[in-house]
Amino acid sequence: MKNETERKDSDLLTQCQDLATGEAALGNAAGFAQNKAAMILVDIAGLLTQREAVEVGKGTLATYRDVVREVAGTGRMFMGFSRDVFKPRLGGEFSEPWKLVGFEDSLSLPKTPAETQIALKTIQKYLEAHPTYEVAALNITAARAEELFNQLSAARGAVYNQEMVVGTLLEARDAASEKLRRRFRGFVAEATQLLGPLDQRWKAFGLNLPGAQETPEMVEGLQVVLIGATAAAAKWLAPARAEYYRVWIRVLNVDPEYRAVGSPADLDFTIENLPSNAAVDVTLTAVNNGGEGPRSEAVRIVTH
After folding, report:
1. Phi/psi at 163 (nearest 5 deg)?
2. Are 284 and 247 in contact (CB under 8 A)?
3. Which residues contact 210 (CB under 8 A, 6 or more apart)?
4. Can you tell me the distance from the alpha carbon of 69 to that of 74, in angstroms, rounded to the nearest whole number?
């Protein structure tokens, strides 16, 4: 059976922690030199550190984006008040003069932070050119428009900078992940030189025995029929790579888990000594020297 690196970093970390645990226990006796437990743990720590840094960076980015939404909302409120102040001069319907105060195509407020930022700069320039149109009592002034523009510009700039930071952190995390993957592959390569393909010590590292078969597929076509008051006959189809089978039963309201009742090599089995007047679920697994396949779909019988 092959030993391949896990695709998800979380699974990879568990996989390599198993290597480190096994190497610490058996590595000296097995003769590992290039992939000692301490080396594996350093690489694990490196990936954990980078994963944490990414999450912190993403949290900061989310905070900066919240600031952008908040400042943009304040800017849109300012635009709304400004629109009401200018209606007596520019009219209640959209026209070309409204473009001079930051409105494009309609009197609707800007929808995005970028549109709001441009509108704030436009209205700032307009009020600087027409200072008599300012309404200080409502804070509709060029200074206020400039203040909001600067705040929104700074907030959006912080987002862009933090996006760059997060991108860099993601690259570092991916590099740490690849380093740990190389460590895993290196460990397997070294173990291949030190251990036989069916050496049981592979399991101490959480690894498959390279010389073992792939585990069997799930058993299909399970049929179970009563052949007596407390006995049943089971038969099934042979899945790929099966050498023998395990028959499992669970008596409802009695057994908390399935329990094995037989290990036949053939494609049929008689289940005896079942309890009377009981509902019983029967399932099957196929086994070979690589391990045990998944359980089949359960079949329920009811004894007399």
Report:
1. -60, -40
2. yes
3. 1, 2, 3, 192, 197, 202
4. 9
Closest Cα to residue 280, out of 261, 295, 266, 264? Answer: 261
Please state the φ and ψ torsions of residue 125, each to the nearest 5 degrees.
Answer: -60, -40
Which of 7, 49, 17 shows the shortest CA–CA distance to 187?
17
Instruction: List the one residue out of 219, 273, 267 whose CA is nearest residue 249.
Output: 273
C-alpha 62/C-alpha 67 separation (Å) is 9
Phi/psi at 261 (5° precision): -125, 0
Provide the whole-model pTM: 0.74
What 3-state class would DSSP assign to 237?
coil
Q: Dump pLDDT digits (tens) for 226-284.
A: 999 999 999 999 999 999 999 999 999 999 999 999 999 999 999 999 999 999 999 99
Q: Which residues, at least 6 apart from 171, have a Cβ–Cβ distance to it below 8 Å?
A: none
How far is the C-alpha of 147 from the C-alpha of 141, rounded, in Å? 10
d(CA 37, CA 295): 35
d(CA 109, CA 252): 66
Cα–Cα distance for residue pair 113/161, rounded to 1 Å: 16
Name the helix (H) or strand (E) containing 108: none
Q: Alpha helices, DSSP H only, in the chain?
A: 9-30, 37-90, 113-129, 142-194
One of 3.40.50.620, 2.60.40.10, 2.102.10.10, 2.70.180.10 is the CATH number of 223-302, namely 2.60.40.10
CATH 2.60.40.10-classified regions of the chain:
223-302
Q: Which run of H or E residues covers position 210? A: none
